[in-house]
Amino acid sequence: SFHCLFRTSYAILLLTCAFYLQVEVLNVTLHQHLVGQDIAINRTVAAIARYLGGGESVASLPLVLVYVGCSGCGKTYALSLIAKHCPHTEALVASHQVALARRTGDNLLHWLQSTLSSRRPNFIVIDDVDLAPDPANLGPGDQSFSAQLETVLSSWGQSGQQTGQAVIFVLSLSGGASVAEGFALKLLGDKQNVSSSEDVKGLVEAYRYMLPPWLKSAEIVPFLPLTKADVKECLLRQLAQHTPELRARVLALPGGVNSLLQDFRFYPAENPIFSESGCKEVPIKLALVAADSL
């Protein structure tokens, strides 16, 4: 009847509005917490918004976001923010083999078939995916996690995964840092402070060329090396979460927060602007200062 049709259409409209509101809040959350990764944030949010706005086509194929780039630059942190922001997100760490096998039964396809919901969007975030695992680490008859992932994504629709709901995978790949680092060094050599859309497109295609065929159509999201200014911002943000005593101790150092930057490694040698480890070592440096104050 007309009333049933109206109620159904209204429910769909409300659901669509809720999706877009969720995406906008995710955008704000990522910008508030991730330092120096505007390109990655914008590509993530744009891809999710585009996918959720796809209507009926959303149900036929999943969205696959592939996080690539340097170590310590926020890929894992971004996954954790997405998992916290989106209710019912399934979070896996591919390199934690024992915990992973216990969680999925060493059969990702079967696990997904029993896990995906037909009542709400599905988010699956997977950290530290190795696309070229060492066969020596596999037992007789075992299938690597990347091979299981390939089976899932290559056979989507033929293996009973379709739920009628959006399914979004966010994969963070191990390795591949040299491509992003080379890109950043080229911009530095060209005296560019901001990368253009053409620059980013070239970086994305460089990563796409490296990916196996079953990931060629994924949305590639590059994380670029963090600068000295970015690391300082990380220090300030984490310092704000510590005790007033520690904050006072750091600010009382000759040079204040800048003095802590001397303990980080930056490159290239002739113009050391990019952090070798991103913000990964920030908690360690602050913990050492705290220990010295005891």
From TrEMBL:
Q: Which GO terms describe its molecular function?
A: ATP binding; ATP hydrolysis activity
**SUPFAM superfamilies for the chain:** P-loop containing nucleoside triphosphate hydrolases (SSF52540)
Sorted alphabetically, the Gene Ontology cellular component annotations on this record are: cytoplasm; endomembrane system
Q: Which GO terms describe its biological process?
A: cellular response to misfolded protein
Pfam families given for it? Torsin
UniProt cross-references to Gene3D superfamilies, sorted A to Z: P-loop containing nucleotide triphosphate hydrolases (3.40.50.300)
Q: Which PANTHER family match?
A: LD13476P-RELATED (PTHR10760:SF2), TORSIN (PTHR10760)
Q: Which family does it belong to?
A: Belongs to the ClpA/ClpB family. Torsin subfamily.
Protein name, as recorded: Putative conserved secreted protein
Species this chain originates from: Amblyomma parvum
**Taxonomic lineage per UniProt?**
Eukaryota, Metazoa, Ecdysozoa, Arthropoda, Chelicerata
